[in-house]
Write a structure and sequence with these properties.
Elements lengths: L1 H9 L7 H15 L1 H25 L3 E7 L5 E6 L5 H26 L3 H16 L5 H20 L2 H18 L2 H11 L7 H9 L3 H24 L5
Antiparallel strand pairs: 1-2
């Protein structure tokens, strides 16, 4: 079986190679299907809340903790000024963080850095674990980290590359669906305290503009990252 994977990944995506498209379609199916999206969305929530946390720290705020919930929602709590650029950028960061992580993963894989990508993910999850403040959140991060560790430690380079391509595609697609879900919720009046609505209250810029910005970032990352993935040289 490993020889088959090595054969796939050795050709992985000369221009227009079907393997990359197949892997991308698998990732799209995981994001599109409710049966797989609901459990896998926890990974997206981890990335989303991690984005809030990193930008909060970079903007000089104090990170009090992160909670991940079984309904795949999350909450990052930080203290500092309730207005101003720091708060704005902290609220802004969550949704784009998923797509940008996917873009970074696509770049690393395209640069023959699949193993680096895996260890970076483990490092980020380990640091994030220090900020988790509830049992379900700890379980989610530990399980995610364990899966990544198993791939990084036990999988052959061929399997590592294939898994990293799949994970990158998943983040690129998975960064867009939550924005679409938020848009639908807002249209039904069910998300009055969303990141977009908080940004609207802070800046006076309509929530729809922030949603449009997140869609733009997500689709731009998908186009650029997808192109990198389908043009990966021999691995």
């Amino acid at each position: 079986m490993d020889e088959i994977v090595r054969s796939w990944t050795s050709e992985l995506l000369d221009s227009g190679n079907a393997v990359a498209m197949v892997v991308g379609l698998i990732a799209l199916g995981l994001v599109w299907s409710r049966g797989t999206w609901l459990p896998l969305r926890n990974v997206v929530t981890i990335a989303h809340e991690g984005g809030h946390a990193v930008v909060a720290l970079l903007s000089g705020r104090t990170l009090n903790g992160i909670r991940l919930h079984s309904d795949t929602s999350g909450l990052t709590v930080s203290t500092g000024r309730s207005t101003g650029p720091g708060m704005v950028f902290t609220l802004l960061a969550g949704y784009p963080a998923v797509s940008l992580l996917g873009l970074g993963g696509a770049w690393l894989v395209s640069a023959d850095g699949a193993q680096i990508m895996l260890w970076v993910c483990i490092g980020l999850l380990a640091v994030m674990l220090l900020a988790i403040r509830n049992v379900y959140g700890v379980l989610s991060v530990v399980v995610t980290g364990a899966v990544v560790f198993v791939v990084s430690w036990f999988a052959t380079p061929a399997w590592q590359a294939l898994c990293c391509v799949l994970f990158s595609w998943f983040l690129l697609f998975g960064g867009i669906r939550p924005v679409a879900e938020l848009s639908r919720k807002r249209s039904r009046g069910r998300a009055a305290n969303s990141d977009a609505d908080q940004l609207a209250r802070l800046t006076g810029v309509p929530a729809g503009v922030w949603l449009a910005l997140w869609f733009l970032v997500g689709f731009a990352a998908l186009v650029v990252g997808g192109r990198w993935l389908v043009l990966i040289p021999q691995i």
